[in-house]
């Protein structure tokens, strides 16, 4: 039987799933909700418009589980083999697969430390949650759930889970900010917009921590329970481990704590006594998805020759027992194996349910983690002959450090100093740290004392003591965790000293040196130790080229590194030679045998360039339009004193003739046909049943025109749609105070009949005068200036570029300007051309990562909003040229066309601004192909001549002549 058969299973499954995803059959076989998620996570245009995306290892892990659970609908681990690779069953331990813990849908994800297992966890939780919420109740498949249990191995990982789902702790406070949970912070990656409200609501109302009490806190329809492995201990074991504390006493006294979505009904208050412990509560749920973080802790123990399950697995077996196919489990680990045997017979036995394998080799070659360096410096060559265990007396009590340990610590400190002095020159916020792994807690005080003797201050050393299982007392943990998790931000501490505590969940980025004083040869412990320093420190895109070349230098060419950017140095320990050799053979590590001068070559050829002394002579700004220029009218400016009164008849005459009781003024014919300009008086005016209706109809008449649209008959079109209430008030005041040059009350006696008479003489006059007033009002237009923010490129005072791919130029604000190392010849030639052209006053090479403000929004061909960063901004005496340089193959790309249209429109807006907001120049957009540039340059063309020939117009952008 092969011990790594599950890795072969994962490999074959991955190939099947890749094919199914690429040919579309996987998408066809899943639910509409799953389709939405997969398209949003893994397909363009979404992936192209985000700065963050799932990497290949994360993507494949997600797809493999969805394929098994939703498409193949497996129910046991054995069924995974039967459906994916039945021939492998002959090499499996079938008695192992027959165990209860494998008779459920169970999937293990093997991903290297530092490669984002938590993001996979979030994605799979969302997949289950949204499918469960949108599944038709009468057609429920039982494959989806809204109940989740996430289990951590210890305090560090548990705290990370609380950060991920409850939000980070507010500064100097024990309260958590829900808007800093992972799913909210990265909503553009995880959640399609249509699902965001329900996801955020679910998380806010249904997360339960172990402190709140699983089964005690009231939640809505579902829960996300966060706990560590202590949940699965018996009550007696818990009592032996944890002393009584205020929270635990309160939990014993009060059976329930309030949630956000439910009240303390009697049924809920009785839950503690009706359902018993947390395990009983979880066991009685109808369905559940369990996520085990760092699942290698679930392995079996062997006592007195018998195999027994650890309490963690026993608890899971109990929870799953009555759920049938409505329970499934996902295990995450970088090291999903048990180590058996010893010496030369020692081997790894991988868990049988591994369904994806993204190992350290793939992660390192992809640049997702630091590159490993084994430090074989000159002072370590004789280490094998030294004692590397702590000094002990005859009673085995530790009395000091051995010479070998002191030598390793000095080597680590020396490397740390080299990195500190080199990194600070490039970025003062990059503070490298060193981690020391000791053999036991009796050694850590001596290590701390030695480090201080070597010159470190007390604040520079953080010592964390734990027991043999890597656990720390909770009261001690509360004191150190704030300093520990923020070490990336601060200069101190510089060195962390620990035994086992920091194996998992210690998710900081700046560990650059590891000194393994611990002599254990456990493969899991070794890999977990190395894993603490793997997370990337230099994530900014300007470092990617340097890091890629360095990986090639170390891992492929087997040469010394050119820089220490994102390199993890391990001070070589003689006890780990086999482990180191395995790393070397798998191309996972290089060797650093050099003794570099302090600070030299630490950052390779990446340099920090600042502004020139005379940068203001060449500085340009990017105009950011906060508010565009607008035209505003003022309907409140209508002055009724400027309106003429009605003089054809006096009020007394009209009253005598028209305002008689008992007369009817109902007409079925068009009574008013008078037209003033484009305004018509319609017959329906006589249908007014009240004065208010009358005012409304007058308003409609004076604010409507009849226009012919196409070949159809004339249609009513509005002439004014704002401030209509103010116009009605003006009409009312005019009628009451000015119409008859005296006060007029339409409700007095039968005065209203004067207005509604079927000849409409008074109404015609009202319409005529109000129409004139509106016309003149619309002529009174105020133009408000646009609000524009000038963002100078000098507001970014430093750039980080590669010295070997940079130029010293005169007409720029920076000391040097960089260009791409890959196919950057065109840009390099164009930069030199601009600097030499006498018609060019100044220019800037726009760096989209560091000059992010210099952007233009456009609509992609598929209808989605995107952001575009031009390549160059060039200033001459009369023009600002926005220049995009493109290879010949991209010049007719459809999205390039869309960019052209958007940039043309943007330039037109800029050209309408006041002169001071556009540097007193006209702005033009230029699309320059490589062939055109070199051809025109050979013929002696100047920049202005080149731009005149490559100026983008609307006809060019659309491809239409007319």
TrEMBL record:
Every Helicase/UvrB N-terminal domain range: 103-337
Residues in Helicase C-terminal domain copies: 415-535
Listed GO CC annotations: cytosol
Transmembrane portions of the chain: none
InterPro entries: Helicase/UvrB_N, Helicase_C-like, Helicase_Restrict-Modif_Enz, P-loop_NTPase
MF terms (GO), sorted A to Z: ATP binding; DNA binding; hydrolase activity
PANTHER family linked to this entry: ATP-DEPENDENT HELICASE IRC3-RELATED (PTHR47396:SF1), TYPE I RESTRICTION ENZYME ECOKI R PROTEIN (PTHR47396)
Name of the protein described by the UniProt record: Type I restriction enzyme EcoKI subunit R
Native organism: Parabacteroides distasonis
């Amino acid at each position: 039987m092969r011990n790594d058969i599950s890795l072969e299973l994962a490999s074959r499954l991955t190939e099947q799933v890749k094919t199914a995803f690429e040919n579309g059959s996987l998408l066809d076989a899943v639910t509409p909700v799953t389709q939405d998620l997969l398209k949003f996570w893994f397909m363009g245009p979404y992936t192209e418009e985000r700065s963050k995306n799932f990497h290949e290892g994360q993507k494949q892990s997600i797809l493999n589980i969805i394929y098994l659970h939703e498409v193949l609908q497996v129910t046991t681990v054995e069924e995974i083999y039967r459906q994916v690779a039945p021939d492998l069953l002959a090499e499996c331990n079938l008695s192992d697969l027959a165990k209860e813990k494998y008779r459920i849908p169970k999937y293990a994800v093997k991903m290297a430390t530092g490669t984002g297992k938590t993001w996979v966890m979030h994605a799979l939780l969302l997949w289950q949650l949204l499918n469960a919420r949108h599944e038709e109740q009468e057609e429920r498949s039982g494959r989806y759930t809204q109940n989740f249990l996430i289990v951590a191995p210890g305090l560090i990982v548990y705290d990370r889970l609380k950060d991920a789902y409850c939000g980070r702790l507010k500064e100097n406070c024990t309260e958590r900010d829900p808007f800093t949970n992972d799913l909210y912070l990265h909503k553009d990656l995880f959640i399609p917009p249509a699902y965001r409200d329900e996801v955020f609501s679910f998380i806010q109302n249904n997360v339960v921590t172990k402190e709140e009490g699983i089964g005690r806190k009231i939640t809505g329809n579902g829960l996300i329970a966060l706990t560590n492995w202590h949940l699965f201990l018996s009550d007696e074991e818990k009592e032996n481990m944890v002393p009584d504390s205020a929270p635990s006493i309160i939990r014993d006294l009060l059976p329930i704590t309030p949630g956000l979505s439910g009240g303390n009904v009697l049924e809920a208050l009785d839950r503690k006594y009706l359902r018993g412990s947390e395990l009983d509560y979880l066991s009685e749920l109808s369905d559940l998805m369990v996520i085990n973080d760092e699942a290698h802790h679930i392995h079996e123990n062997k006592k007195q020759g018998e195999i027994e399950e650890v309490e963690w697995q026993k608890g899971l077996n109990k929870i799953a027992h009555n759920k049938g196919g409505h329970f499934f489990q996902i295990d995450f680990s970088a090291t999903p194996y048990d180590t058996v045997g010893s010496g030369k017979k020692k081997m790894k036995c991988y868990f049988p349910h591994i369904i994806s394998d993204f190992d350290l080799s793939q992660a390192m070659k992809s640049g997702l983690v630091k590159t490993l360096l084994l430090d074989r410096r000159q002072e370590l060559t004789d280490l094998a002959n030294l004692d590397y265990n702590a000094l002990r007396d005859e009673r085995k009590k530790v009395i000091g450090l051995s010479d070998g340990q002191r030598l390793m610590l000095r080597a680590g400190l020396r490397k740390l100093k080299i990195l500190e002095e080199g990194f600070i020159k490039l970025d003062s916020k990059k503070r490298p740290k060193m981690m020391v792994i000791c053999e036991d807690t009796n050694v850590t005080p001596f290590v701390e004392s030695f480090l201080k003797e070597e010159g470190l201050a007390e604040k520079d050393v953080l010592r964390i003591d734990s027991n043999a299982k890597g656990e720390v007392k909770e009261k001690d943990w509360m004191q150190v965790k704030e300093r520990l998790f923020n070490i990336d931000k601060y200069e101190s501490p510089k060195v962390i000293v620990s035994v086992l505590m920091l194996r998992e969940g210690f998710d900081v980025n700046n560990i650059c040196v590891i000194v393994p004083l611990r002599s254990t040869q456990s493969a899991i412990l070794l890999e977990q130790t190395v894993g603490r320093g793997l997370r990337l420190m230099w994530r900014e895109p300007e470092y990617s080229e340097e890091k890629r070349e360095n990986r090639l230098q170390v891992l492929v060419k087997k040469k010394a590194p050119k820089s220490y950017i994102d390199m993890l140095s391990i001070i070589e320990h003689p006890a780990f030679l086999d482990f180191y050799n395995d790393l070397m053979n798998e191309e996972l590590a290089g060797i650093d045998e050099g003794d570099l001068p302090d600070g030299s070559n630490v950052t390779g050829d990446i340099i920090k360039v600042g502004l020139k002394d005379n940068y203001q002579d060449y500085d340009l700004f990017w105009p950011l339009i906060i508010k565009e220029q607008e035209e505003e009218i003022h309907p409140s400016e209508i002055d009724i004193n400027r309106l003429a009164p009605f003089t054809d008849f006096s009020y007394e005459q009209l009253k005598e003739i028209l305002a008689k009781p008992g007369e009817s003024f109902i007409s079925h014919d068009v009574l008013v046909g008078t037209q003033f300009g484009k305004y018509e008086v319609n017959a329906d005016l006589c249908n007014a049943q009240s004065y208010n209706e009358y005012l409304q109809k007058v308003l409609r008449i004076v604010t409507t025109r009849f226009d012919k649209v196409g070949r159809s008959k004339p249609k009513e079109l509005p002439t004014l749609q704002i401030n209509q209430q103010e116009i009605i008030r003006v009409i009312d005041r005019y009628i009451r105070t000015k119409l008859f040059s005296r006060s007029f009350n339409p409700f007095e006696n039968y005065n209203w009949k004067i207005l509604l008479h079927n000849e409409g003489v008074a109404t015609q006059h009202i319409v005529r005068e109000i129409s004139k007033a509106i016309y003149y009002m619309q002529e009174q237009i105020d133009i408000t200036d646009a609000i524009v923010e000038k963002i100078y490129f000098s507001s970014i005072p430093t750039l980080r570029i590669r010295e070997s791919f940079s130029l010293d130029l005169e007409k720029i604000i920076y000391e040097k300007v960089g260009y791409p190392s890959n196919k950057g010849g065109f840009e390099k030639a164009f930069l030199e051309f601009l600097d030499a052209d006498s018609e060019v006053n100044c220019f800037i090479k726009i760096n989209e990562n560091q000059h992010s403000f210099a952007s233009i929004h456009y609509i992609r061909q598929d209808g989605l909003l995107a952001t575009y960063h031009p390549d160059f901004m060039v200033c001459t005496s009369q023009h600002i040229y926005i220049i995009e340089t493109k290879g010949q193959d991209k010049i007719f790309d459809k999205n390039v066309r869309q960019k052209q249209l958007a940039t043309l429109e943007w330039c037109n807006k800029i050209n309408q601004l006041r002169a001071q907001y556009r540097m007193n120049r006209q702005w033009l957009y230029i699309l320059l192909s490589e062939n055109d540039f070199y051809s025109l340059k050979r013929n002696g063309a100047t920049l202005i001549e080149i731009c005149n020939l490559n100026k983008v117009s609307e006809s060019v952008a659309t491809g239409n002549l007319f």
